[in-house]
Amino acid sequence: MMKTLISKKAVKWAATLCLVVSFPALVVAEGDADKVGSVAFKFLNIQSDARTAALGGLSAQGAGASALFSNPAGIAGSSMGISAGVNQWLVETNITNIGFVMPMAGGTVGLSLVSVDYGETMRSGWSGDADQGTMNLFPNLGDAWKASDTSLQLSYAVGMSDKFSIGGTVKMITQDIDGESISGTAYDVGMQFNTGYNGIRMGATISNFGPDVQPVDIPDGSSYEEFPSMSLPMTFNFGIVAQAFGDDNMGLVAGLNVAKYADMAQEITLNGEFSVAGLAKIRGSYNLNNPQFPVSFGAGISLAGIDVGLAMSSHNVLGSATRITLGYSF
Questions:
Q1: Model pTM above 0.90
Q2: CA angle (157 as vertex; 201, 54 as ends), nearest 5
Q3: What are 294-298's contacts with CB under 8 Å, separation 24+?
Q4: Distance CA 24, CA 271 (A)
Q5: Cα gap 264→37, rounded to integer Å
Q6: How far apart are CA 83 and CA 106, in angstroms?
Q7: Fewer beta carbons within 10 angstroms: which end of the chain, N or C?
Q8: What does the pLDDT read at residue 216?
Q9: Which ranges in the chain belong to alpha helices (H)?
Q10: DSSP assignment, residue 217?
Q11: What span, in angstroms and rounded, lies between the C-alpha atoms of 64 and 95?
């Protein structure tokens, strides 16, 4: 009897918390075009995991080590596992990620790393006399500069019941541009709730919140007075999925993901994941609000504890981004 009461209370709290956390993401907001470029560490909003990218978000169904990059609550109850991936992002940018999870301390602990390499860019500059109108632009001064971003992340999640789990992540983030670097700390909080009815699952996250980041001082000793600090790219995500037909062996799981960014308009993405013989997955999503990345699709194979995922996201101007992820559960 006592166990039944605890279970009912856990389900009630789970539903309430999901609604509370997801409410900001469900509020229909106008575009925040005036805030573009106002946040630091924007790379934190890039979906680096193949399955996450193919489905346009994994708030509700992220699981295992790959959930470290979407919703930390998804690692709750996981066995020891690892996930690693490469992302050929836009304009010759490469992103790599690796994550490891294991049961520990009454829950599940995860350690992950996201690294972004923007490659080399040739240094350019102006030369001449501005008063005499002889200024000329030199696009290639003979040397190049580099830029990179890194996020080292520690996560912990626990199942409050067989239906409800919560998790959190602490991120140590750094950015380096031509030898000048800034750093900061960001946090994620997430939860997942399995209703137990028709495969309906809900998930919500608040990602990348924390103290503002101080800008780099200019070499001459001055600072960017008009931008004394920059905010982190805080994001609200809410997802809901259900078994549209069939089952885990052969069937379709469909749903939607709602994302609200600090510096961009709200996005609503429809997604679907079709299982074939319990081994292969065919995935796709359509973003209703983002004309730059309207369509993503991918596939995955799971066999003997090994998971391989591939995803492609189309960009209306810059081509497409390709992600490959490899995972293993011990």
A1: no
A2: 50
A3: 296/53, 296/54, 296/55, 296/56, 297/54, 298/50, 298/51, 298/53, 298/54, 298/323
A4: 21
A5: 10
A6: 22
A7: N
A8: 65
A9: 2-26, 50-55
A10: P
A11: 20
Q: DSSP readout, 261-289? A: ESSS--EEEEEEEEEETTTEEEEEEEESS
Looking up residue 263, the CATH number of its domain turns out to be 2.40.160.40
Helix (H) or strand (E) holding 147: strand 144-159
Q: For 218, which DSSP code?
A: P
Task: Report the candidate in 153, 76, 144 with the shortest Cα–Cα distance to residue 115.
Answer: 153
Q: Which of 198, 196, 188 is nearest to 164 (CA)?
A: 196
Distance CA 27, CA 238 (A): 11
Distance CA 208, CA 230 (A): 13
Number of domains observed in the structure of the chain: 1
pLDDT in tens, 108-130: 999 999 999 998 877 776 666 66
Residue 119 CB: number of other CB atoms within 10 A?
A: 12
Question: Domain range spanning residue 239?
Answer: 2-329
CA dihedral 7, 168, 88, 264 (to 10 degrees): 100
| The one-letter amino acid at 99 | G
